[in-house]
Amino acid sequence: MLQQEDIGVKEKAITISILSQRIDMLIGLTGRNASGKSTIVNWFSEKGLETSSCSDSIRAWLAEQNIEPTRDALIEGGRELRRKGGAGVLAEMLLEILDGKDAVVDSIRTPGEVRALREREDFILIEVRANTETRWGRLQSRARFGDPLNKETFIEQEKAEEVAEDDAGQALNATAELADLVILNDGTEEELIEDLEELFLKLG
């Protein structure tokens, strides 16, 4: 049975869905670019969870096509795979690979992927939020290959990912609405880790 509980951590409101008598754990992450998802993935990995991403399937497909995995290429590759296999195809492929193992899944970007992952009763979707200025600053600091080089492009890309034109497109707004839990990550990495430690106790 799912119970809703509000937790205040360092003046941050975190809404948690707790599944009683939890045995397995499948954590899914959704959120905007540079919101902190990779940091959370690494943290759960250190706790013993396998790491995976809905983008892994896209990268493998791009490699077969000899296409560089830029952000634009990943977006269009994801659209192509969803057109061929349906809105939840990337998540369905991951479920087969995971085969019931504890894991954290990054880059969940469509409601179809959420619906597919909910085939596992232990699935929890976390939305990671941070304001635009914070995320733009993080993006500049990390200088990751394929990231936009100016703020205008950064904002344009986000708007294009908010609402899908069809089932093949990214729909971050609709995906976020399905989240069981929201983490506000406008602070430091140390503050985020403290929040995750408390969250893990609740989930565990």
Care to describe what's here?
The chain has 204 residues and is α/β, with parallel strands linked by helices. It has one domain: 3-Layer(aba) Sandwich (Rossmann fold). It has nine helices and seven strands. The protein has helices spanning 37-46, 54-64, 71-85, 89-98, 111-117, 132-142, 151-162, 172-176, 189-203, and strands at residues 2-9, 12-19, 26-31, 50-53, 103-106, 123-129, 181-184. The strands form two sheets. Strands 4-5-3-6-7 form a five-stranded parallel sheet. The chain has a two-stranded antiparallel ribbon with strand order 1-2. Helix 2 (54-64) crosses helix 4 (89-98). The protein is globular. The two termini are 15 Å apart.
Write the layout of secondary structure elements.
Layout lengths: L1 E8 L2 E8 L6 E6 L5 H10 L3 E4 H11 L6 H15 L3 H10 L4 E4 L4 H7 L5 E7 L2 H11 L8 H12 L9 H5 L4 E4 L4 H15 L1
Parallel strand pairs: 3-5, 3-6, 4-5, 6-7
Antiparallel strand pairs: 1-2
Helix pairs in contact: 2-3, 2-4, 4-5
* Helix/strand order: EEEHEHHHEHEHHHEH
Structural class, judged by helices and strands? alpha/beta
- Describe the oligomeric state of these chains in a short phrase: single chain
> Radius of gyration in whole Å, from Cα?
16 Å
Q: Total strand count, please?
A: 7
Tertiary shape? globular
End-to-end distance? 15 Å
Number of domains: 1
In the predicted model, the low-confidence regions spanning at least 5 consecutive residues are: 1-22
Strand content: 15-25%
Specify the helix fraction band: 40-55%
What is the CATH architecture assignment? 3-Layer(aba) Sandwich
**Which CATH first-tier class would you pick?**
Alpha Beta
Report on the biggest sheet.
5 strands, parallel
The CATH homologous superfamily name equals P-loop containing nucleotide triphosphate hydrolases
Q: Quick check: average pLDDT?
A: 86
Enumerate the strands of the largest sheet in spatial order, edge to edge or round the barrel. 4-5-3-6-7
CATH topology: Rossmann fold
Number of helices: 9
